[in-house]
Give the backbone structure.
Amino acid sequence: MIRRPPTIICYICGREYGTKSIAIHEPQCLKKWHNENNLLPKELRRSEPKKPEVRTITAKGFYDLDALNEAAWTSALSQLVPCNICGRTFLPDRLIVHQRSCKPKVAK
C-alpha cells in the first residue's frame, strides 16, 4: 500500500496542499480572494474568510490534520452562495454565469 503524503485543505479555496506549501499558498490565495471579491457586485460581496482555530494536538504532539482539514473544508464551503432560482451553491463569480442560464422549474 502506497501512503500519500499528508495534505492540508486551504480554508479559502478548499484545495489540498502539502504541509510545506500551504504556508506559501494561503497569503496568495487570500490576496486573490480580495481581488475577485472587489470585482463582484456589492450584493454578492462577502466578508473575509477567517482561518479556523483548531488546536487539537494528538498524544504524539502533532496537530490533528483530520480536524484541521474538516474545519478548513467547512470554511471553504461557507464561501458558496446559493442561486435564488434553483438553490444550488456556487462561488460568487460563477453564480453570475449560472444565473444567465438558470430557469425556474415549470410545474407539470
The mean pLDDT is 86. Residues 5-78 form one domain. The beta strands are 7-9, 16-18, 81-82, 89-90. The two ends are 53 Å apart (CA to CA).
